[in-house]
Amino acid sequence: MLLIGYLGPSGTFSEQAALSYFNNLNEYELIPFPTIQDLLQAIDRGEILKGVVPIENSIEGAVNTTVDMLAFEVNLNIQAEIVIPVRHYLLGYKEFAFNEITQVLSHPQAIAQCRNYLHTHMPKAEMVFTSSTAEAVREVASKKSPRAAVGTLLAAKKYGLSVLDSDIQDTKQNETRFVVLGKEEGKKGDKCKTSLVFSTENKPGELYRILNIFSLWDVNMTKIISRPSKTKLGEYVFFIDLEGHVLEEDMKNALMMVQRKTSFYKLLGSYEIIE
């Protein structure tokens, strides 16, 4: 049985992403981890084969713990990308009406993504933050009381709560990008992406010169973010996503030039996009 980790507890969007990718449960055993750090370190030490973690949300942006650890703390490859639509549900006991609900529990990001709905429908309810949406559902399910949780349909089924309302997120185009991580390199698929992190010398125009390399080789850059280098105030590293795979000639040539002209370079993976 191959061990696959995900950001727990059971009932999270991470488990949903893991189930969509590792769907043969006769071959894989899914194991929840309490934090992204615990999960990535377990893969790095070889305690589990692979892991599934969030790396970016369409509203909240990059998941900094994931990108920072991939850059500085572990040696893992992104092997695949899975994008999960984020659908938030209001979960609780049907015995209580909306105007009776005194508390709404969930992860801070989930509360933020449903801010307008919660303010409109239960303005007097106290917002209580939990470590995850699944933990909020578990807590509400533990005692029949006028409380509700913002969580997933998967968590509602696992903990036996009723769906009080569906799709309560304020922005309907809300998606989270998850990545499958492991020691091996990712496979080439029909649609691929390449991710890397690098830094440049602190000179005028250095970043432009690096990025111009991709234009010269006709490689499309789909994302760039900066993060502190963790060495000195004012110094940054840059994470970029590119369309294509390192086995493609133009990508290979572009990355060779970038590697020669950067002060720090790390390929995070070249991998298939699962749709």
Automatic annotation (TrEMBL):
SUPFAM superfamilies: ACT-like, Periplasmic binding protein-like II. Keywords: Amino-acid biosynthesis, Aromatic amino acid biosynthesis, Lyase, Phenylalanine biosynthesis. Residues 195-272 form the ACT domain. It holds the Pfam family PDT. Its EC number is 4.2.1.51. The keyword Metal-binding does not apply. It comes from the Bacteria. Residues 3-183 form the Prephenate dehydratase domain. It catalyses: prephenate + H(+) = 3-phenylpyruvate + CO2 + H2O. One of its GO terms (molecular function) is prephenate dehydratase activity. Pathway: Amino-acid biosynthesis; L-phenylalanine biosynthesis; phenylpyruvate from prephenate: step 1/1. This is Prephenate dehydratase. It comes from Defluviitalea saccharophila. The gene is pheA.
